[in-house]
Amino acid sequence: MKIGFIGTGVMGHAIVRRLMDAGHELFVYNRTKSKTDDLVANGATWKDTPKEITDASEIVFTMVGYPQDVEQVYYEDATGIFASDVKDKILVDLTTSTPSLAEKIDQTAKDKGAASLDAPVSGGDLGAKNGTLTIMVGGDQAVYDKVTSLFEKMGESYVLHGTAGKGQHTKMANQIMIAGTMTGMTEMLVYSQKAGLSLQKVMDTLAGGAAANWSMSNYGPRILKDDYTPGFFVKHFIKDLKIALDEAEKNSLDLPSTQLATQLYDKLADQGYENDGTQALIKLWWGDRTKS
Ligand code: NAP
């Protein structure tokens, strides 16, 4: 299948690799061109704009950073995806973005005779590399059915949660949970250290009990190695938490734990760590041990 892919950062790059390994023809575009160099060296074709990507492809995936990046890639005059004749094409946004933008893209796609899905993912950089992502999809069943063979190459779990925007809502539910597991893991480690415990032993023990969770098993070992490379950027987690809080507010819902996690991550970003991985939250207690 001719597949277009826009956004070849931490996640997109790894997903493109998997789709190429599955034998598909890939057309790639990224704001910083050099991030596609090795993909092109391995057989992908570079295109100069999202419009040209769409012209060349049957299905287009986007995996950019923020909602404003999604807006730009889809709607930019002359060079955006919708500047192409999208009739009969499928457009899939994998970015974690807003439910309302997913609904808007879906409506524009339908108006132009195309189809769209919002399909944000969970599972981190390793999930993208290993094809073990969890994919949360919104859109029409018939469109979803046409894309499942590609989701299968990216993830172990993919579920349609309802109409356009419901994938993004499900991802917000995921991020609300992660806010708790990241703050919980961090406080668990700083407490254990002060109590004079072996952090490795504590994590091994907790992993077998009721406190076991993905954040601890994936990011705990990185913290013990003082490895704060992303992974999942602090700046992107803040973006997600603020989308979740906005959506909660629209439903007159108070989420105090998510608010507190947002304040803590904002503080971390203010200290200059917005391009670290989310495991860097522990620097609010430990400082930057890599500099000591
Ligand atoms: P990333 O490394 O920053 O990748 C985003 C890529 O999109 C970058 O290469 C960026 O280009 C490109 N981009 C941004 N705006 C663009 C535009 N207008 N036109 C073309 N390319 C553009 O981030 P990531 O970690 O892959 O995350 C991507 C998305 O997935 C985010 O929404 C994030 O919240 C979500 N997510 C991430 C993870 C994770 O663990 N990393 C997990 C689940 C979901 P530049 O190279 O120029 O910056």
Structural notes for this entry:
By secondary structure, the chain is of the alpha/beta class. The chain has two domains: 2-163, Rossmann fold (3-Layer(aba) Sandwich); 169-291, Orthogonal Bundle (N-(1-d-carboxylethyl)-l-norvaline Dehydrogenase, domain 2), CATH 1.10.1040.10. 53% of the residues lie in helices and 13% in strands. Strands 1, 2, 3, 4, 5, 6, 7, 8 and 9 form a nine-stranded mixed sheet that branches.
Order of helices and strands: EHEHEHEHEHEEHEHEHHHHHH
Distance between the termini: 51 Å
Class per helix and strand makeup? alpha/beta
| Helix content percent band | 40-55%
CATH homologous superfamily (4th level) name of the largest domain: NAD(P)-binding Rossmann-like Domain
Major β-sheet profile: 9 strands, mixed
Radius of gyration: 20 Å
Q: How many β-strand runs?
A: 9
The pLDDT mean sits at 97
Which geometry do the CA atoms define? globular
Poorly predicted regions: none
Number of helices: 13
Question: What small-molecule ligands were found?
Answer: NADP nicotinamide-adenine-dinucleotide phosphate
Strand proportion: 5-15%
* CATH architecture label name of the largest domain: 3-Layer(aba) Sandwich
Task: Count the domains.
Answer: 2
CATH topology of the largest domain: Rossmann fold
Write out key terms for the chains shown.
alpha/beta; Rossmann fold; binds NADP nicotinamide-adenine-dinucleotide phosphate; 2 domains; globular; N-(1-d-carboxylethyl)-l-norvaline Dehydrogenase, domain 2; 292 residues
